[in-house]
Amino acid sequence: MRMHGELKHEDVEAARRDLADRTLATIRGDLARLIYLASMRDYNTGEYHHEGLAYMFTESVAGKAIAACHRDVFRRLILCSVFMLVPTALHPRSLPEFGRSSSLTE
To answer: Distance from the CA of 52 to the CA of which of 31, 62, 81, 83 falls in 20 to 30 A?
Structure first.
């Protein structure tokens, strides 16, 4: 039996997987996932809050799991190009007037 307040890596990992599989997997794109995860962070304390995850695990385990997911998504984003972040329809090359009106083609 574990003591109250004791964090186990297995608990944090289980909560991280739960968040990734149940919630983050339903959000389209890492940029949207990053915004979602950032919205759960209290800017005054730096702590993350998610009632459902805290109910299933503990507040502390939930916070650690959210922080881990936030780091993972952030790392993926900083390693990808801007063109991977922007939907194809919004790429300047796909806009019909871009080539004629932009000084970038000169």
So the answer is: 31
